[in-house]
């Protein structure tokens, strides 16, 4: 099932549990605006290359639309649409005053030089600058983009609208970024994991973890789990996977990745088949890369007891069903990875206030939001006798539905 069909299905299940009116259901599902632009840039060798860029603005009932921009060869309109919708429910689950959006460019950032990436980002910004803004739609990093990408968007946007640091989040600190934003999604994943494990009388210390993806989210989650005494026994990136049953020394792995750009040939572990990683024996599996990686092909073989969805929509509905029947506890993406957008919100608030918080305050507030959201999800699970995924969806959808009704439809 493609990402959009899967997301729509989860939304509809939540809508039925909440007993939403069918017209309201339809209006919540249809995106506010879908933007598709062609971005042509001169390559370093003088030839021209064209890329298609998307920004889907899903809903703004609760505030400005918010969500990352992804650079990846598999970016397509349906996936961006699904990711934008997930942002609407995620910001509502986190209870931050935003709606949802997502963007992307179909390109492989690994094949582009830094100056090509800069040109592409600037052309994309030129094409969408009228449709984003501090109080309309605020982009941030996602897969394949980072603080530097946000700096280019900020610079290009400011040429049209004047200096506007709050138009993007996840910026470099020197341009108004927030302390703690880079680590925030991984840190939020760890707070979410702690909240879940505590329900089962468990903690991170001594448990075994398998992590797919070692970019922003995966590397920070690995590092913080390692610091808390969790045993990270297998990790992968696009180049391969590494395992060590005694626990990988994550600080050494970070140095190796920094030096070589890859997890390959790491001396403190054995290489493994990346396809085997998701079904490797462990207590907790944390997908931190692409969507749809847990599917009908591998779900029955998953051995983890807990799955923390740090990636967006890593589990397709068929896998969800198989895993639930097996008793695997899944912490859903719209809660588990909400730490990133929550600290993006803190960054935006700091930019608007013109006042910078210290990192301790950022992390403390993040923990407060993540813990509160977990308790709210648990309450929805009790009210509707449902899974954590439906608990999170009903929480988010209900908040957006209430805001939509309050705003009304009168022209
Ligand atoms: N950044 C953020 O704040 C947030 C991100 N997310 C989600 O988290 C996920 C990861 O995002 P982020 O860490 O920012 O992205 P990055 O681009 O920083 O990292 C992605 C990682 O995934 C790896 N990867 C890519 N393809 C594969 C594959 N087929 N198998 C194994 N690993 C693979 C990459 O490998 P390599 O290192 O070799 O390139 C990289 O390590 C995405 O689903 C994103 O939507 C969710 C909330 C917020
Ligand atoms: O920080 C943000 O605004 C968005 C992060 C994001 O894209 C996500 O949560 O999937």
UniProtKB/TrEMBL annotation:
Alphabetized Pfam families for the sequence: ELFV_dehydrog (PF00208), ELFV_dehydrog_N (PF02812)
Protein keywords: NAD, Oxidoreductase
Substrates-to-products reaction catalysed: L-glutamate + NADP(+) + H2O = 2-oxoglutarate + NH4(+) + NADPH + H(+); L-glutamate + NAD(+) + H2O = 2-oxoglutarate + NH4(+) + NADH + H(+)
Gene3D superfamilies per UniProt: Leucine Dehydrogenase, chain A, domain 1, NAD(P)-binding Rossmann-like Domain
Keyword match Oxidoreductase: yes
All residue ranges annotated as the Glutamate/phenylalanine/leucine/valine/L-tryptophan dehydrogenase C-terminal domain in the record: 178-408
InterPro entries attached to this UniProt entry: Aminoacid_DH-like_N_sf, Glu/Leu/Phe/Val/Trp_DH, Glu/Leu/Phe/Val/Trp_DH_C, Glu/Leu/Phe/Val/Trp_DH_dimer, Glu/Leu/Phe/Val_DH_AS, Glu_DH, NAD(P)-bd_dom_sf, NAD_bind_Glu_DH
UniProt keyword annotation of Oxidoreductase present: yes
Protein family according to the UniProt entry: Belongs to the Glu/Leu/Phe/Val dehydrogenases family.
Full protein name: Glutamate dehydrogenase
Source organism (scientific name): Hibiscus sabdariffa (roselle)
């Amino acid at each position: 099932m493609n990402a959009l069909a899967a997301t729509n299905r989860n939304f509809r299940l939540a809508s039925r549990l909440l007993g939403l009116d069918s017209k309201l259901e339809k209006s919540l599902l249809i995106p506010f605006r879908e933007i598709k632009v062609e971005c042509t840039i001169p390559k370093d060798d003088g030839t021209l290359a064209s890329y298609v860029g998307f920004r889907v603005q899903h809903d703004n009932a609760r505030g400005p639309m918010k969500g990352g921009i992804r650079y990846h060869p598999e970016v397509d309109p349906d996936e961006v649409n699904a990711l934008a919708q997930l942002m609407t429910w995620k910001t509502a689950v986190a209870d931050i005053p935003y709606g949802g959006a997502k963007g992307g460019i179909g390109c492989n950032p690994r094949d582009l030089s830094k100056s090509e990436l800069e040109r592409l980002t600037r052309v994309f910004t030129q094409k969408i600058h009228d449709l984003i803004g501090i109080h309309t739609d605020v982009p941030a990093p996602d897969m394949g983009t980072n603080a530097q990408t946000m700096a280019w968007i900020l610079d290009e946007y400011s040429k049209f609208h004047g200096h506007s640091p709050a138009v993007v989040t996840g910026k470099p600190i020197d341009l108004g970024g927030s302390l703690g934003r880079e680590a925030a999604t991984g840190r939020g994943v760890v707070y979410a994991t702690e909240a879940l494990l505590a329900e089962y009388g468990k903690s991170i210390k001594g448990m075994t973890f398998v992590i797919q993806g070692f970019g922003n989210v995966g590397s920070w989650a690995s590092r913080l789990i390692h610091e808390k005494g969790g045993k990270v026994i297998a990790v992968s990136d696009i180049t391969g996977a590494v395992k060590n049953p005694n626990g990988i020394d994550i600080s050494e792995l970070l140095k190796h990745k920094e030096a070589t750009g890859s997890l390959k040939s790491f001396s403190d572990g054995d290489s493994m088949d990346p396809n085997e990683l998701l079904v490797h024996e462990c207590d907790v599996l944390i997908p931190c890369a692409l969507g749809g990686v847990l599917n009908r092909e591998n779900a029955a073989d998953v051995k983890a007891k807990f799955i923390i969805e740090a990636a967006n929509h890593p589990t397709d509905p068929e896998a969800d069903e198989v895993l639930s029947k097996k008793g695997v506890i899944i912490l859903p993406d719209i809660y588990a990875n909400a730490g990133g957008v929550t600290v993006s919100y803190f960054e935006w608030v700091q930019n608007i206030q013109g006042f910078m918080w210290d990192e301790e305050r950022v992390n403390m507030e993040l923990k407060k939001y993540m813990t509160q959201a977990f308790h709210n999800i648990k309450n929805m699970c009790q009210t509707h006798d449902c899974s954590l995924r439906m608990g999170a969806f009903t929480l988010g959808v209900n908040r957006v539905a209430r805001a939509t009704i309050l705003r009304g439809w009168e022209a």
